[in-house]
Amino acid sequence: MTGRVLVLGGTGEGRRLAEALVAEGVEVVSSLAGRVADPVLPAGEVRVGGFGGAAGLAAWLRAHPVAAVVDATHPFATTMTASAAEACAVTGHPLLRLQRPGWAEHPGDDWRWVDTLEEAAAAVQGFGSVFLTTGRQGLGAFAGLTARCLVRSVDPPAPPLPGRTTVVLARGPFTVEEELALLREHAVDVVVTKDSGGAMTAAKLTAARELGLPVVLVRRPPLPLGVPTVATVDDAVAWVLGR
Ligand code: NAP
Prior knowledge:
single chain, alpha/beta, Rossmann fold, 2 domains, 7 helices, 30% helix, 23% strand
């Protein structure tokens, strides 16, 4: 691989990919959305902020010497993923999607799958104490809930929020013991999460299983058509080095 690689990041995978590529002597520029006030920065060069849609990204790719793009954004960062597919189709840049596998159900789990945050809000009607781990964005979907809601996020969430919300500011990963303590402290009776996958935020699922709590999971949006996809950082490194 001769040229620079643009890594669309904001995830642990994005950071690990940048680190691995830099260690291989590949020039990397990582792109972050700029949502988190104090992000953990990846190795190599970093740029921050949106590109201005697919057209903006295409213009950026034409203006900067980049040989390939790896979209390592979060499984639910659908707009960025769609923009990357559209921009690279226009400019001809090779594009790889790096997306970790979703979570798998274990014996003892009580998982309830839904397609949207709105459906998740409907699925927790009737519960008294809801742990919302869906991230700071999209909490508006739960604004109508009258249950006690526990929200955990890296930066403070903006309104609209459910009326009886307790916010815990924290950055993962969390241990199962920490998750058990939090669920007990707030007498949580249902957990809501996106199917983000990965080990970083999986402890809450183990804790919910141990306490016999139901978990409402939001299904992942579909992958963009025609974009090669890998599930591991090692496979993404091999793709880059093989070009
Ligand atoms: P999104 O809805 O797909 O993105 C919205 C807009 O933010 C995009 O259209 C783009 O703006 C900008 N953007 C997103 N990711 C970017 C990146 N890596 N570099 C530059 N601009 C980016 O995504 P999101 O759900 O807001 O996620 C934003 C970031 O947080 C992503 O980097 C993602 O990996 C990370 N993240 C998301 C979640 C989640 O649950 N969604 C969870 C953890 C981390 P323009 O159109 O102006 O280019």
